[in-house]
Amino acid sequence: MDKDKPQSNIPNTDKVAITIPDPGIVTNLLTPEQVQKDTDSKFKTVNGLLLSVVMVLLFMVATLVIDSFHFNSVTYKEYSQKENSIEQMQKINQELLEQNKKNQLIIIEQQKQIWRIIGKK
Prior knowledge:
Elements: H1 32-120
């Protein structure tokens, strides 16, 4: 062989072995019914998978909604308790303010009485 020419490993194509099958012996070809069955089974599998994904997503959304209701309920309960305590504190403060006003009036009246008693002597 020549060292200057590139060598290739191409097989000899002089003898090609092509066999033509008999029409009655064909076994690898699928009939339209078999193709339809295969396609139907694949679609059923995909549909089942999609249905399960949708069911899981619906379940997750439902749990989120229920959890948000629970959170809102707890938040509202805490808010209403704080609101009630603030109202009670305001009532107590108002009552104390009224009591202070009454006490001041009593003190002023007592001071006037003391000045009258002192003034008589």
